[in-house]
Sequence to fold (248 residues):
Amino acid sequence: MSAAATRGLSILGLLALWSAAALISDDPTILPAPWTLLPRYAQEIENGKLLHHLTATLLRVIAAFVLAMGLGIALGYAMGRYPRLDRWLDPWLVVFLNLPALVLIVLCYLWIGLNETAAILAVTLNKVPNVTTVIREGARSLSPDLDAMAGVFRMSTWARLRHVVLPQLAPFVTAAARSGIAVIWKIVLVVEFLGRSSGVGFQIHLYFQLFDVGMVLVYALAFIAVMLLIEWALLQPWERRVRRWRLA
Fold:
């Protein structure tokens, strides 16, 4: 059975379990059945709200993801390659790893204001420590033999980075990216829930206040579908590609 067929059957199984739970509860205000959400999806697509709020959230996810990955890769590589720098920055890393996401979000809103800068910065700061930790381990595991070979052949800095360092770091980068995108979009929803006027998190907050479980599920599942598409269409193929050299 192909991977796509397996995923399809798995999703159908989840929908069947959801349908059974909805029938058992027999209360659509608590758990509506999957098919009862379809007219609501159609309504939100027709009036343009679903696309508007999905786009707003997705743009925030992309911005925070790019910033977190860029800063985390640079910092993690430096800490992994230079032990003295690692000793200085490791306590900072531990502090930020254990600082609750909610605290950073609230502080950014209090210090900067209820704006896009504070929202994206809060998400970025929450994810950078995790990326740094993964990349640091990758930098520590770089082969000294390959590094020595690059020195013998007098490879330029760019050539060494491209042909020696990046292939070894690639599995760690993909691991950080896959876990990062999963965490970032969840934090973005919290950021929107607390202090934005658009996005999936904002809509969930709105319908939470109205006790509308159906609309909460509509927006939550819509964005989960987008994230699954990114995972299956982009991240997993990228991960298989960068791991090919290890299987050669």
User: Anything to note?
Assistant: The chain has a mean pLDDT of 85. The chain is about 85% helix and 0% strand. Residues 40-247 form a domain with the MetI-like fold fold (CATH 1.10.3720.10). The two ends are 25 Å apart (CA to CA).
